[in-house]
Specification:
By secondary structure, the chain is an alpha+beta fold. The protein folds into two domains: about 240 residues, P-loop containing nucleotide triphosphate hydrolases (Rossmann fold, 3-Layer(aba) Sandwich), CATH 3.40.50; about 120 residues, no CATH class. Strands 21-20-14-11-12-13-22 form a seven-stranded antiparallel β-sheet. A hairpin with a 2-residue loop joins strand 4 and strand 5. The radius of gyration is 25 Å and the shape is elongated. The relative contact order is 0.12. The structure holds adenosine-5'-diphosphate and magnesium ion (MG). The site of adenosine-5'-diphosphate has 12 residues, from strand 2 and helix 1.
Length: about 375
């Protein structure tokens, strides 16, 4: 089931009563979530992720705009009639019920022609439990399960009514690091197996990048960029997106374009065309550096860390906005770890320019 957001806006009266203007939690969202895909809503806390999710499931009504499931307008439909499954950060299981009873719970209230016998409910619940691989735990109570297992119960419960759309709001935040990795793989597998259109909310770029078909990067209620994770990483539309994606983060420098050259501090680092002379913000991905004794960017070495496949060089440069620059070089290159200075050449595709004021991307061509 594809989900379409049409000029969707949600305003709230400001929680701080002294501020008269409304908070625009979701500002004119207009995009489509393709059928059967897993998309991540990614952005910092307070950017409107949960609000978007609650609009899709119907717990909140939009201030303006429409939501369609397939071709059907569901904007006015109550949540129980939308066919959505919901999973939140806190598992919200009933402690006194067994796993089986927890998963069955949504089926108990079905009425009319949908009403099920106890046996049918048990069968359905067991099927759901099997999908998330907790079918051996059905008689336990939530208190006897690990956090990861509890979250699986919550997912099974969300799946039991065979939802058309599955909505997950930071479902991994309460899990420890190891379980978080494991459970996110699990969510990916379940989504692939069931083919249910899924919206996954997270503030963790690593999580979003690793499991989704598409990511929607948002900030302060405004959609910044939408695309495949790798595309958004390789081709960010602005400095916010460039900085939000990637670990280690992109290195940011103050630079300028001068007669067809990109200059950082005293170093003339790239010959470019298509950009008039101006001050710019320069972003260089950690993997965008080569160690090259003829290279134009001269940095002072702070530390060289060999990490298996890669060498991480921590260095400084007067043009860098952060105190340190982090570059990642393949260990195929033998770096003398005692050197005090290093010269870098840059991989042009890993260098992005941004408008000094607006942060918008400035595109350039490389001159040989
Ligand atoms: P996120 O899930 O990305 O952390 P939210 O969607 O919860 O963000 O919130 C987006 C913005 O809307 C925030 O500024 C938040 O304070 C505000 N907001 C959310 N819900 C309400 C509400 N019920 N009343 C007033 N403001 C709200
Ligand atoms: Mg939230």
């Amino acid at each position: 089931m594809k989900v379409v957001l049409e000029h969707l806006t949600k305003k709230f009266p400001n929680r701080n009563r002294k501020i008269k203007e409304d908070v625009i939690a979701v500002n004119d969202f207009d995009f489509e979530i393709p059928d059967g895909k897993l998309i991540a809503l990614l952005g910092p806390s307070g950017c409107g992720k949960s609000t978007t999710l609650n609009l899709i499931c119907g717990l909140l009504a939009p201030s303006s705009g429409r939501i369609l499931f397939g071709d059907i307008d569901v904007t006015k439909l109550p949540p129980e009639n939308r066919g959505v499954g919901l999973v939140f950060q806190n598992y919200a299981l009933y402690p006194h019920l067994t796993v089986l009873q927890n998963i069955m719970f949504p089926l108990e209230n079905l009425k009319g022609k949908d009403k099920m016998t106890k046996e049918e409910m048990k069968k359905k619940a067991a099927e759901s439990a099997k999908i998330v691989q907790i079918d051996h735990l059905l008689e336990r109570r939530p208190g006897e399960l690990s956090g990861g297992q509890q979250q699986r119960v919550a997912i099974a419960r969300a799946l039991v009514k065979r939802p058309r759309v599955l909505l997950l709001d930071e479902p991994l935040s309460n899990l420890d690091a190891r379980l978080r990795l494991q459970t996110r793989e699990e969510i990916r597998r379940i989504q692939r197996e069931t083919g249910i259109t899924t919206v996954f909310v997270t503030h963790d770029q690593d999580e979003a990048m690793s499991i989704s078909d598409m990511i929607v990067v948002m900030e302060a209620g405004i959609l910044q960029q939408i695309g495949k994770p790798q595309e958004v990483y390789d081709d960010p539309v602005n400095l916010f997106v460039a900085k939000f994606l990637g670990t280690p983060a992109i290195n940011v420098f103050d630079g300028r374009v001068e007669k067809g050259e990109l200059v950082i501090g005293k170093d003339r680092v790239l010959k470019i065309s298509g950009v008039p002379d101006q001050e710019v913000t320069v972003g260089i991905r950690p993997e965008g550096f080569w160690v090259d004794d003829e290279g134009p960017l001269l940095c002072k070495v702070r530390a060289v860390e060999v990490m298996g496949r890669d060498v991480s060089i921590v260095s400084t440069h007067e043009g860098s906005q952060a105190e340190q620059i982090r570059s990642i070089i393949s260990t195929d290159f033998h770096m003398d770890t005692t050197r005090k200075e290093v010269r870098f050449a840059l991989k042009p595709r890993k260098v992005h320019l941004f408008d000094k004021k607006t942060g918008e991307r400035i595109r350039f061509e490389v001159k040989e």
